Amino acid sequence: MGRLIVVSNRVQPPDAAGAGATGGLAVALSAALREYSGLWFGWSGETVDAFTGHLSMRKVGGVTLALMDLDEHDVHEYYNGYANRTLWPLFHYRTDLVAYERSFDEGYARVNARFAESLLPLIEPDDLIWVQDYHLLPLARALRRRGARNPIGFFLHIPWPARQIFTTLPRHAELVEALFDYDLIGFQTADSLQAFADYVKESAGGEVLPGGIAMAFGKRARIGAFPIGIDVAEITEGLKSDRAKAEFERVRASLLGRKMILGVDRLDYSKGLEERFLAYEQYLEDHPEGREHVFLLQIATPTRDEVEAYQDIRGRLESLSGRINGAYADVDWVPVRYVNKTYRRDALTGIYRAAHVALVTPLRDGMNLVAKEYVAAQDPDDPGVLVLSEQAGAAEQMREALIVNPFNREAVAEAIRRGLAMPLAERKDRWQALFDGVSTDDVAAWRDSFVAALKNEATADQPLRASANAR
Ligand code: ADP
Ligand code: F6P
């Protein structure tokens, strides 16, 4: 077998200095890329006046990166447009926020074609290609049209929505037909897999055979659920760092005997931050005895700030945190500490460990890695409690968390109360089961199971692919 080529919109190589500034996903992908002498291809994150197709190649930590710049139209129509104003809200069930604009479609197709054209000369016949996420749904089609015959797999990091939601997308069939140019299509959860299978059967007139072979549009693709995990060692090693220890001490010193509830998220409307603040307000209202003995630290990193819906949610959260603090704060107590900073990953582990309760309450989420990172960072002798939304993909695996409906303010308030009061023995039992799951189904297991399934397709279906490509 040849090399592994990973393609993603954003390329986040591990920090060359090993400082741990990037995530477990980058670390895991880099490990696989090193193993296969592979290549990671994607957007540099830079915007230029006019697209040139020039690739900047560099090696970081033993991994070869090939990066291209996009022009302003590309970023507007593809990244801020079709990816983040059409697909993202739609796939997160926010049809009220979805923008359909013809120029977004065109920009999305154009950038996928640009990815294909720039990548094609780098592909060798034996390479496996693994494409990541909703920015690049039609990339296999663009590559196949240009002659690529390699096995190509796709993994969707966000949810695949229910058929009734997905079919509101103009030209939805075109998008799914393009997906059938992949040999393997991976989803985060059984729920997303089922929603995709429903679409294939009910809307595309296709079928799904036992064992996960989907057939539609005169083509076949293997489909499966591959829940992503974290790099547990990255967190446990991170906890040993001076930075993590200092951060832990800094937070604990600031508690003054109080308990801390923690949220860590990108500042995204899918994360349910407003609903979380309101549930916490409800807790304060219902439990006067808890006031002044607890606070919420919400870390929310601004993201996609050129998209209006993100500017709106930011404004609403600022006023909501202000309102709660205005209503409840005292001279020596502030109920909400609302922080818009991005922390280094090792520092974040110290903050996770200092928290008594983590609120991970997205309204809809593909998986949610924060839930897993929080569990990995806990002290086995005195672990905190995870409150987890039933709408996060992680809830399919992390059943020992306190599972809540994030839209139900009273239920989340009650879970906060229960988490803060939970006896040590129950906290330990729940944590141990969660930690075992997070350790077994880690990011290496995710990566290896996907790559093995793709390799399997490569050896099983050479003749089928050759004939499909010839069409
Ligand atoms: P999403 O992919 O939608 O952002 P996840 O929870 O799956 O949601 O992943 C978020 C990742 O970003 C996690 O690895 C988390 O540690 C990291 N992250 C989120 N907020 C911050 C922050 N303020 N500082 C540092 N890392 C953060
Ligand atoms: O998990 C979904 C995802 O969109 C990833 O593909 C992406 O890397 C991450 O969230 C952050 O989003 P963005 O790249 O738009 O900042």
Explain how this protein is built.
With 471 residues, the protein is α/β, with parallel strands linked by helices. Helices cover 46% and strands 19% of the residues. The chain is built from 17 helices and 16 strands. The protein has helices spanning 24-35, 72-91, 102-119, 139-145, 163-166, 172-179, 190-203, 232-239, 242-255, 273-286, 308-328, 345-354, 369-376, 409-421, 424-440, 443-460, 462-470, and strands at residues 4-10, 39-48, 55-60, 63-71, 128-132, 152-155, 184-187, 207-209, 213-216, 219-225, 259-266, 294-301, 336-339, 357-360, 385-389, 402-404. The strands form two sheets. A ten-stranded mixed sheet has the order 3-4-2-1-5-6-7-10-9-8, sandwiched between helices. The protein has a six-stranded parallel sheet with strand order 13-12-11-14-15-16, with helices on both faces. Strand 14, helix 13 (369-376) and strand 15 form a beta-alpha-beta unit. The two termini are 25 Å apart. 46% of the residues are buried. Residues 466-471 have low confidence and may be disordered. 6-O-phosphono-beta-D-fructofuranose is lined by residues 10, 133, 157-158, 303-304, 366.
Secondary structure layout plus pairing:
Blueprint: E1 4-10, H1 24-35, E2 39-48, E3 55-60, E4 63-71, H2 72-91, H3 102-119, E5 128-132, H4 139-145, E6 152-155, H5 163-166, H6 172-179, E7 184-187, H7 190-203, E8 207-209, E9 213-216, E10 219-225, H8 232-239, H9 242-255, E11 259-266, H10 273-286, E12 294-301, H11 308-328, E13 336-339, H12 345-354, E14 357-360, H13 369-376, E15 385-389, E16 402-404, H14 409-421, H15 424-440, H16 443-460, H17 462-470
Parallel strand pairs: 1-2, 1-5, 2-4, 5-6, 6-7, 7-10, 11-12, 11-14, 12-13, 14-15, 15-16
Antiparallel strand pairs: 3-4, 8-9, 9-10
Helix pairs in contact: 1-16, 2-3, 3-4, 8-12, 9-12, 10-11, 10-14
This protein binds adenosine-5'-diphosphate (ADP) and 6-O-phosphono-beta-D-fructofuranose.
